[in-house]
Amino acid sequence: MAKKETETTDSEPERKFNEDTDIKDLPGVGATIASKLRNAGYEDVISLATANPMDVIEICEIGEPTAKKIISAAQEAANMNFVSGLEFEERSKAVQRISTGSNALDILLGGGVESQAITECYGEFGSGKSQIAFQLAINVQLPKEKGGLEGHVIWVDTEGTFRFSRVEQLAKVKGLDPKEALQNIKVGRAYSSEHQKALVDKIAGMINRDPKIKLIIVDSMMALYRAEYVGRGTLADRQQKLNVILHNLQRLADRFNVAVYMTNQVMARPDMMFGDPTAPVGGHIIGHVATYRIYLRKGKKGLRVAKLVDSPSLPEGEATFQISADGITDAEDEDAKKTK
Ligand SMILES: Nc1ncnc2c1ncn2[C@@H]1O[C@H](COP(=O)(O)OP(=O)(O)OP(=O)(O)O)[C@@H](O)[C@H]1O
Ligand SMILES: [Mg+2]
Q1: What is the pLDDT of residues 211-253, one digit of tens each?
Q2: pTM score, two decimals?
Q3: Ligand 1 pocket check: which of 131, 264, 297 to mutate, most ligand atoms within 8 Å of Cβ?
Q4: CATH numbers and ranges of domains, the chain
Q5: Which of 140, 216, 222, 154 minimizes the C-alpha distance to 185?
Q6: Per the CB 3.0–4.6 Å rule, which of 73, 230, 304, 319 could disulfide with 26?
């Protein structure tokens, strides 16, 4: 019954556009729009496929129907449809982990900080959020057997707290060349929340150019948003903006199989008698997006206690570790100290 010509109807028709299509060739794009998109960090089909229409409208100065048409053309080209459970399983097999430096903390996180996921660390000032970031930025550069991925790092610094001297110090402890270790970390200093978003929008292009990038750090995620939206009564607006940047980070994590580690300062409120005394100011917006959330607090004798909160797949629990000149390590137990 079936005619010869229809033989190929069961298989996928040959697709005119694919992931490697130049964005200027997509329906509705063209040279002018392509150049505007590139300047804004949308350099390829996939980044465009996952773009927010509002951003595309603004960047290209075009109307909503055109923006939507462009994005859906990119989605079509990127073949971003449903995937089978089996493909899903394949993807999760590709997950890689970076050691925090503390065994106990790694175990709490199911083996270290995970790729394809956002790990959010929140706690009050001095609790060790940035110190974990420094340690991860070094450890990711180590070979696999030492807890790393021989990877490079992107560091978005929103408070000017990146310290090259700390990187060099930790590199030496791990036997890495300090200058090389610094070279492998690309630091973007964000001066406003808009600038922070613009920096994040550039990351896809950076990873395309340097596929060794395995870790994205944002320290801290909320500081600029918090400062800028203070007293403006536009909390919903802030949350919406935060949501966009968080989703962009999650897309980067999925698409490039990289880990995202972000920090979030919260104030301990000892006056509060009920509920969570460390509830992040402005609500739990990050919580809904982050895959792993660690709450850090200062423990006895300079130790730190990490608590895993709301994890989808891991049991809640706590881990104790310490921060010293040598970086993040397991807490030395008292008996071991005495025999030294
Ligand atoms: N070289 C070092 N030697 C020993 N301890 C250090 C060293 N550097 C940092 N620390 C410890 O780390 C703490 C600072 O931690 P960190 O900067 O990670 O805090 P944070 O959670 O990022 O705070 P904030 O919210 O203010 O950014 C210091 O109080 C100190 O205890
Ligand atoms: Mg910090």
Answers
A1: 999 999 999 999 998 888 876 667 777 877 887 788 889 989 9
A2: 0.82
A3: 131
A4: 18-78 (1.10.150.20), 94-338 (3.40.50.300)
A5: 154
A6: 73
